[in-house]
Design a protein that fits this description.
Strand order of the largest sheet: 10-9-11-8-7-12-13
Shape: globular
Number of strands: 16
Distance between the termini: 50 Å
Structural class: alpha/beta
Helix content: 40-55%
Length: 412
């Protein structure tokens, strides 16, 4: 790990000097390498899936682990999209004259070396590499042991693309050991690593946050809410709630709690319950919800605190937006919340008063994603309030420094 750190620090000094064209060539080269190696990637991924099934890995984890043809194409598309994005490095903003005659502004600069620790999803290897590379950073990637074969195959494509563009192969390094001690070493190598980004289950992120001696960009849970207001359009509300929950279960931006205004509950909940039943979603509701729906079991206090990542949904009937906001502010993990309403004033109030990294009006929570936000691939979601918040794209992987322009100015 020390050697990886030393190599990453040296590579960071080189890659921060690379121009936009060179970084874009590397990204497009990696995309070509992924395309050419798709059969190999499938074979290596199948080894991980086979091992996962043998180890009784749950369905949600297997879903995150699988590299389908569509997900491989999404990796390729993500690389091309990041290559097409404006390069933030070197951008100078807020340049203004001071009374002394000097000009003061801010220049966007790379963070340096980023350590990324993640579980299951091998596509994160590409997402992380692409964003770190375009933002002028070196990175050390430590994927889960369950995706070791997949990550090695992807890493070979990345190395090929970097070298073809004349950039150091050590700009992106994949930790090839499954030893958990490697994580402990990575998160304390402050002399080599500038920022840690953990992506995975709550236990992993809690451990990283507790033990790291390096700044961490993170989110712990994805307890996302959709509130259907009494002035909602029924057709929109049904489509949004169904998509937010059932589009994919094992993702952090899936809806886990549905809040429904009492004035519309009798009309909309039976429709939604029938559709959720078709998808085999287990419903857990408050007393009022259970009195309306036959196929609903009583929710416990723990349910409101739970990120299921599974076909289970908590439902609560609330009096109005005030009770909805109170519930969200009590149980939200500050990830993503949505309101469905045709009342513009209520929508504006929801946007203003909900303190989450993404807040939506008349849209599915599943849109809380860097690709959907136009950031290219994302490196993760941050629910922190300092530096990066929400989907972390290129700007989240850079910092700023003050620059001063003078012409022989001296301070009097």
């Amino acid at each position: 790990m020390q050697q990886l750190g030393q190599q990453a620090r040296q590579a960071a000094r080189e890659i921060c000097k690379a121009d936009t064209g060179q970084k874009n060539r590397a990204l497009l080269n990696i995309a070509e390498a992924i395309t050419a190696a798709s059969a190999t990637l499938s074979v290596e991924n199948s080894k991980d899936l086979q091992a996962g099934r043998a180890n009784d890995m749950d369905a949600a984890s297997l879903d995150r682990l699988e590299l389908t043809p569509q997900r491989m194409q999404a990796m390729i598309d993500g690389l091309k999209q990041v290559a097409a994005l404006p390069d933030p490095v070197g951008e100078i903003t807020d340049l203004s004259f001071r009374p002394s005659g000097i000009q003061v502004g801010k220049m966007r600069v790379p963070l340096g070396v980023i350590g990324i620790i993640y579980e299951s999803r091998p596509n994160v290897t590409i997402d992380a590499a692409a964003l770190c590379l375009k933002a002028g950073n070196a990175c050390i990637l430590r994927g889960g042991s369950e995706s070791l074969h997949s990550n090695r195959a992807i890493a070979a494509c990345i190395t090929q693309g970097l070298q073809a563009a004349g950039l150091p192969a050590e700009s992106v390094q994949v930790v090839e050991t499954a030893d958990r001690a490697a994580v402990g070493e990575l998160i304390t190598m402050s002399q080599y690593v500038d920022v840690i980004v953990p992506r995975g289950g709550k236990s992993l992120i809690e451990r990283i946050s507790r033990e790291a001696t390096i700044p961490v960009i993170k989110h712990l849970d994805g307890i996302c809410h959709v509130y259907i207001d009494g002035k909602a359009d029924i057709q929109k509300a049904v489509a949004i709630a169904l998509n937010a929950k059932t589009h994919r279960y094992g993702v952090c931006n899936a809806m886990e709690t549905l809040l429904v205004a009492e004035s519309i509950a009798v009309e909309i909940l039976p429709i939604l319950a029938a559709l959720f039943a078709e998808k085999q979603v287990e419903l857990r509701g408050c007393l009022k919800t259970c009195s309306l729906l036959d196929n609903c079991v009583r929710a416990t206090e723990a349910d409101w605190h739970t990120e299921y990542l599974a076909p289970i949904l908590s439902i609560k009937i609330v009096t109005d937006i005030d009770e909805a906001l109170s519930h969200i502010n009590t149980y939200s993990s500050a990830h993503t919340e949505a309101i469905v309403t045709e009342d513009y004033s209520l929508a504006r109030r929801f946007l203003r008063e909900v303190d989450s990294s993404s807040v939506m009006v008349n849209a599915s929570t599943r849109f809380a994603d860097g690709f959907e936000y136009g950031l290219g691939a994302e490196i993760g979601i941050s629910t922190d309030k300092l530096h990066a918040r929400g989907p972390v794209g290129l700007h989240g992987l850079t910092s700023v420094k003050f620059v001063v322009l003078g012409d022989g100015h001296i301070r009097h």
